[in-house]
Structure formats: structure tokens, C-alpha cells
Amino acid sequence: MGLKMLFGNFGFHQRTHYADANTAVFSNLNAKHEKNAHGEYSVVFGDGKIDLSEATTTDPIEINTVFGDVDVVLNPTKLYAVNANSVFGNIRLPDGDTVSFGSLRTRFPDHAGEPQLRIKANCVFGEIRFIVKAAEEKKP
After folding, report:
1. Structural domain count, the chain
2. Which of 17, 18, 51, 134 could form a disulfide with 32 if both were Cys (CB 3.0 to 4.6 A apart)?
């Protein structure tokens, strides 16, 4: 019955694909957070890459995945506060911490100061990986 609700019938050939700037269902999401952009991203039965390296919002950003696989790109010069919630999934933070069932609140890099960006990550039967963008080298 639950599968029938998800797929419309028991055949997988009738699944509905949907994608916009912040959401992907049976599709892929490639998003870069722009100034004043809507702060929620969702991936359901798909893959995603969300680039927050240049995000400047003071509002929290929410990232959700259900049966999805999402990479979140962060800037190494910013301080982040993350509230990670997972149920039968995996959320991997840049410092190596992971949460598979339950919640984890953390900051990184680990130093004092007010976070420049607050992120709430929710994962159910999927994976969210936080990746720190490599610092760009200045050319002489």
C-alpha cells in the first residue's frame, strides 16, 4: 500500500519526475545558493549538489533528502552551525562526525564566534555529505 502511494501503482514506469531550483523528485538537483534565495532544498529519490560556499543569508538554510544522495559544498573561511537529523540515513560532516539515527548539533570550523550560516539537515534513508571547498590559490 505504501509503495502504491509513492508510485501510483506497482509499476515503476509511471513515476513522476520533478525539478526546480530548490527541489528534485526522481531527478537531480544542482543548486548554488544565491543572495536572497529561498533557503530550503529537497532531494527525493535523486542526487544533488548544493553549493553554499557563497551564501550570505542570515536565515537558516534547510536541506532535506529522502532516499537521496546530496553533497553540500561549504566555504573554508566561514563559520557554520549545523543541526543534523537522520533516520536510517547518513549525514557526514567535514570534521568526520556522522549521524545515522538521531540528531547532532555541531559547529565548524571549531572555534569561537557567531556562525555566519546556520544549516538544518534532515536525512531519511539517504546520505548528506558536507564538503569543504578547497581554498583557491592566488596566481602570482
Report:
1. 1
2. 51
Q: Let me know if residue 31 belongs to a domain.
A: yes
Exposed (0-12), middle (13-18) or buried (19+): which is 6, by Cβ within 10 Å? exposed
Q: Are strands 47-51 and 69-74 parallel, antiparallel or unpaired?
A: parallel
Nearest to 6 by CA among 47, 44, 48, 46: 44
Sign of CA dihedral 93, 49, 121, 123: negative
Q: DSSP of 26-51, one letter per residue?
A: SSEEEEEPPTT---EEEEESSEEEEE
How many residues comprise the chain?
A: 140
Report the SS3 class of residue 7. Answer: helix
Residue pLDDT, tens place only, 3-27: 444 455 545 455 577 777 788 899 8
> Do 105 and 118 contact (CB within 8 A), yes or no?
no
Average pLDDT over residues 99-113: 82
Q: What is the 3-state secondary structure (H, E, C) of 55-123?
A: CCCCCCEEEEEECCEEEEEECCCCCEEEEEEEEEEEEECCCCCEEEEEEEEEEECCCCCCCCEEEEEEE
Q: pTM for the complete prediction?
A: 0.80
In a domain, 80, yes or no: yes
